Protein: VWA domain-containing protein
Organism: Kribbella speibonae
Amino acid sequence: MGKHSSAVTRSNTNRRSVYITAVGLLVLSLGAVFVVRSFGSEAGADGFLGGGKACADPTQIQLSTTPEMQAPLEAAAKSLAAKGGKDGNPCVQVTITAAPSAQIARDVARGSDNRPDLWVPDSSLWVAQADDGQSVPSIAVASIATTPMVIVSRRENFADTSSWLRIMAANEPALLDPLSTSPGALTLLAVQSERQKTSASDGQVSQLVVPLAQKLGSMARPYTDVSALFGRADQDGSKIVVPATEQSFVKYQEAHPEAQLRAIQPDTGTLSLDYPIVVTAKSDTDAANDAAQALATELLTDSATQARDQAGFRDTTMSPLAGGRGVGDVNQLPKPTSEAIETTLQNWTRLSLSTHSLAVIDISGSMAEKVGTKTRMQLTIEAAAGGLSLFPDSAELGLWTFSTTIGQDKADYKPLVPIAPLSKRQRGKIVDQLKIQHPIPNGGTGLYDTAIAAVRQVRQEYKSNAVNTVLLFTDGKNDDPGSPTLAQAVQALKAQQDPSRPVRIIALGMGPEANADELSALAGATGGAAYVARNPGDLKNVFIDALQSR
């Protein structure tokens, strides 16, 4: 870093953190740097400083922070610079830039020339994502301010505030992008963290997260403007709930006193943004650390404390904001581990990928057997139709049915609706076809030939920017005497596979005759998975589980 220039690091692409390598973390469209200001000790250097004795040779410090924290840090930097290196204060000139935390994590991890010497992200969850292949940046100051996560909506949408899961499941959550914003990531982590108190099942969490990821992941531009979401949530009759920071809500309230919005903390508790000061310099880290400590000290002065509160931030002990603003006392959920953060965001990335799928439904004679008051066919079609609601309009889905010799040239499968985006028209075609299906009397289950043909069809129409799957619904096992053996079918499926262009079978079996071993062998040959519902009540969870295995 030196006395006159900030650290510049060379690019290192040999090693990345697992999350950045596997998921391509932090793909942003937020705009890069906002305002740049320098606060040094040279008289009149930035127009903010008055008189005072200048340091002869100030150390140059490049600091990056989030836009909402820029003003408090500018005030601290100005105050520090005015002391001119006296009374044990370091002689520094701090240049402050504002950019999203995710962007700086990406820059540091990639060894970008834009790497600052000090970094104040809005949450320490980004620090582990800034591994440049040599070291994870060190935290010099654990926190300079905090703000808890809250859920914002119209009052009538808070009939049940018992948990994050229940509030969002009962309404329409508008979630900031978890891959580029801390509020979005912390929302997902809060849903997982509170399970220690609620004992919510994997299925209950999945029923919220899977369709949410599908919906938000299909958007051309993820949500990043929380004020715009507040505006949508404030409309009459809106069911939108917005997980956000208390600080952003307080500032919105000040700017929109007429808004009919309320912020609440779920009864289970909440997670918070903690604004650490992180040393990201490649050299002269001692000087950067000294500057961090000095800035933190300046932020403890009475004037800085008042300015922080006015900006909507809490102190490091989470004391409530003055004047009754915000949500008052908060209960903290257990802080997520770095492993939990990585796993949660990896899962979100996988679940939010677009879908290119072919649904293949068994209509053999055994599907006429009843389970309770409904036939297996009726239950399967209900599960398939209900599954449509989990897919966004941008997903692509087609429909086949299968039973022995029902297709052209006595094929065991019959194409009904070609794979296409799920427009209103496409959804209508699929639903209309599902409604008129009925079991074929004495029809056999031509499972093997159908599985091979369905994989071949999806491969012919492969979409490189989507998850390509065959959703195979059946109640039994193969009973077509003219088909290949199971071993031959598995070999044929393996022969079609291309690791760079995978097409997976997700098999959904239903009822006591569904052969789990057979379905697992077929799905496993493609890198897919098989699920069996032994009773009708399991069908919804089985479908959710199937989507998660993509």
Confidence is low (pLDDT under 50) at residues 1-36, 41-53. The two ends are 46 Å apart (CA to CA). The first helix runs from residue 18 to 23.
